[in-house]
DNA sequence: CTGTTAGCGCTTTCAT
DNA sequence: ATGAAAGCGCTAACAG
């Protein structure tokens, strides 16, 4: 059996209270501290976090549940969160739901049972039972990439309606009129429906512009490729496509330009969302809507820590960022020539 | 204060033992089960995992510590691990070290304190104190993307020497002779030094071939771009580059072909490593060395679970996969024309 | 400043 | 089948 605090105390010739004090940095006598440290080393003692947490009632872990770690956008969010958390001695536990409500709920329940210090959450569906349960609980929650809505939770988000509007307005300003939006699954996330809403608004402002929606079963490169293959064969193709994220856009690009013979942007203009690192290096450099991903993660943890320390003022509860249009060759004849 | 098992028992009119039995699926009387479930629902009771684990001594969490979640290769490993773990009711806690030994150690210590059921680890440095500590501990460890070496840990890995050999042999067979290898930081991982070793072997087999090594401070798109910018200005450029991962290769491609005027593969041939989804959609479709990432993660958890259930035979302790050469335009005049 | 001790919430054994 | 009670390893309050 592993050594426990009692063993360390015996080995060092002190009491358990003293060992606990050393462990928690409230010991003062250098000689004692040294003896305890030596004993810990000698016995290979590792503190039992379950016992510590049970007694202390708090935890040094922060949960981060995102839609998909495979999406570099969320990887960047995680990096930002980790950086801010580490500065205060917290650890970030990452869960990836794959937009599956079952898995999302499983993670939330697990983290709730673990009594994590707080939960950072990009919900697949804010109205799901699992999400509501954690929102109703006493666990501090920061919604990430999701507006506060009716909940009392803090929120760090980017305006997706504006992003969708920026993307499609740009396509329209390039003279395109038959716009298609490629989204995720039908039971899609708030992000995607907001981007779509922004797209609709942009189209509504131009009389002869039309908008069609193509749903996929996942927001991945693979799913994008599948759509691209269909689009390539289709008789009445749209003249511009707004992909709801860069993964889909990259997949579209693969199918259209590499496997097919559709020229981008000449035959079909394309813009993605997130501006992941790969966008600039795509076969046709990909126009996109940039979001401050790392900053989002950083700010989310910052808000959570403030909440834990009760230094949260009303105006601090929500941080909204704005998306930014990045024009590259995939949507602009000018950029393509340049 | 949150409801505890005692409150549930009182509310349901049964004893705590009975509630515990219901919670753990060993209750038999349907009426009792229903009453307990109703009470749990009514009180919003959530089991305290710390107490449960303290008493039971076991945990349903598996830790996965990788070099970089921002690398789609590791994201895929995580996906595979998660899938296998979920099948047995385990949760995967993900930590990303960023190849930083301090952070790696912090994660390992944290997970050790949490008494996770097991650790899946891609070490930044197998010989670091933190890694040795967990290897010496009683926590089951599966090394991921790392051969077993001297340790007693299980291991799931891909032969990187072979991968490096495949990559550079291919460049040589295309007639290139002045090969450069772009690696990570000098205190680099085993994977990268093995890939380099394979590259050296391939070069050694061709009399007039030379090999140079370019180190970067991170294995990211950004670092690759920086190298590409230097390379582009350099008077005596190599005629072929083997990038130690696809992220570096994509960054190189950005700098060389989009920001610079180096033609790939005509002026400089390029091959990456991992065959991430983006490789096929790069500005010049990227040749790469494919690794079975998802399968790696899946198998790692499978091995861990077998170990936990004592169904591990000697020949099961190690699973070695083989890398596969994927030729695209970036390294092959033929593929570029095709 | 150090040592002793009462629980934290749960599981599980042992009576009933 | 159900209820009572003993601890899991730790922290913090209190006594020395």
List the helices and strands and how they pair.
2 copies of one chain form a homodimer.
Chain A lengths: L4 H8 L3 H8 L6 H14 L5 H8 L4 E6 L5 H16 L3 E6 L4 H13 L4 E4 L7 H8 L4 E4 L9 E5 L1 H14 L4 E6 L6 H15 L5 E6 L5 H13 L6 E4 L2 H14 L9 E3 L16 E3 L2 H16 L9 E4 L2 E3 L6 H5 L1
Helix pairs in contact in A: 1-2, 1-3, 5-12, 6-7, 8-9, 10-11
Chain A binds a DNA duplex (16 and 16 nucleotides) through helix 2 and helix 4.
Largest sheet of chain A: 6 strands, parallel
Oligomer kind: homodimer
How many strands appear in the DSSP assignment of chain A? 12
Find the structural class of chain A using helix and strand composition. alpha/beta
Q: Percent of residues of chain A in beta strands?
A: 15-25%
Q: What is Rg of chain A?
A: 25 Å
Low-pLDDT runs of 5+ residues of chain A are none
Helical segment tally of chain A? 13
Which protein chains are joined by the largest interface, and how many residues does each one contribute? A-B, 59 and 59 residues
Q: What is the element string of chain A, with H for helices and E for strands?
A: HHHHEHEHEHEEHEHEHEHEEHEEH
The separation of the N and C termini of chain A measures 68 Å
Mean pLDDT across all amino acids of chain A: 92
Give the strand order, joined by hyphens, for the main sheet of chain A. Answer: 2-1-3-4-5-11
Broad shape of chain A: elongated
**In which range does the helix fraction of chain A lie?**
40-55%
